[in-house]
Design a protein that fits this description.
- 42% of the residues are buried.
- The strands form two sheets. The protein has a five-stranded mixed β-sheet with strand order 3-2-1-9-10. A five-stranded mixed β-sheet has the order 4-5-6-8-7, with no helix packed on it.
- The chain has a single domain, classed as Purple Acid Phosphatase, chain A, domain 2.
- It is built from six helices and ten strands; from the N terminus they run βαβαβαααββαβββββ.
- It is α/β, with parallel strands linked by helices.
- It is an enzyme of class 3 (hydrolase).
- It comes from bioreactor metagenome.
């Protein structure tokens, strides 16, 4: 059994399945997805449904799932819907509204139950998985950004694996310009720009925690 992490696939369903194939993800493996399955890409709702049905997969809440929940909550203010739409949620909403009322209710219930952080022990190391940054503040766990050079591990954590911040912001690029996983002081950034459709050298990264091998699509 192997343990994998990826983050921020943002509706790029083909890349998601391609990177799982590259990693040889199997039915006995575990996959932790650190949020932002939806928005920007062309198949957000389809990918969300794939993820929720995938055996061995654990989805964490990202800021885009949070925006969707806030926008579609009963008596939600119009500003919540505008915020979501301005952050790539318009196409997601249009596709969501084509689902049956029952299926829409099921998806929102699933999103509402998602954790926003997860601790696990793999190969004698304790990993803290989070979308934004490790914090006692739930807002920062979704929206915060890890600063280059900062060791933001909480007590008892050997390493933090996070998404949300594209690794090109840490100058984590190969010579050909493709994004790669970034490693800092006890922190590992794995958002390699998937969903930023205007950036041709974006990739979806997947990290195997047992041996730190990297896979890309």
């Amino acid at each position: 059994m192997s343990t994998y992490c990826l983050s921020d696939p943002h509706g790029e369903r083909d890349r998601f399945h391609a990177v799982l194939k590259a990693a040889a993800f199997g039915k006995h493996d575990r996959l932790f997805i650190l949020g932002d399955v939806i928005d920007r890409g062309p198949e957000s709702i389809e990918l969300l449904q794939d993820v929720l049905a995938l055996p061995g997969a654990v989805l964490l809440r990202g800021n885009h799932e949070q925006m969707m929940l806030e926008a579609l909550a009963p008596e939600s203010p119009p500003t919540a819907l505008t915020k979501w739409a301005n952050n790539g949620g318009e196409q997601t909403l249009c596709r969501f509204l084509t689902l049956s009322p029952g299926r829409r209710k099921e998806l929102l219930k699933s999103l509402g139950a998602l954790p926003d952080a997860f601790n696990l022990r793999v190969a004698d190391k304790t990993f803290h998985l989070v979308h934004g940054m490790p914090s006692d503040d739930s807002y920062l766990r979704l929206w915060g950004r890890v600063e280059a050079g900062a060791d933001c591990r909480l007590p008892g954590q050997d390493a933090v694996v996070f998404g949300h911040t594209p690794t090109w912001l840490y100058s984590a690029q190969l010579l050909d310009g493709h994004c790669r996983i970034w490693r800092g002081a006890g922190v590992i950034g794995i958002d390699c720009g998937c969903g930023h459709l205007q950036f041709p050298r974006r990739r979806l990264a997947c990290l195997r925690l047992e041996d730190m091998e990297e896979f890309y699509a």
